[in-house]
Amino acid sequence: MNEVEAQFETERELEARLKLKPGAMRRMRREARGPKWCRVGRLIRYRRGDVEAWLKANEGGK
What we know:
By secondary structure, the chain is of the alpha+beta class. The chain has helices at 3-6, 11-18, 24-30, 48-57, and strands at 8-9, 38-40, 43-47.
């Protein structure tokens, strides 16, 4: 994996990391509820930094 590839995740990779059901990120993307995403040709990719920012913005608790 090169440096650029290490900065991005696929929907499947992100779902696996967050332990979400298959298709969850696609639904969130379509409903504009998920993290920022990029289109690379026909592929959807998520920047790790954007995902971490989205997770931090959606933290619960104290």
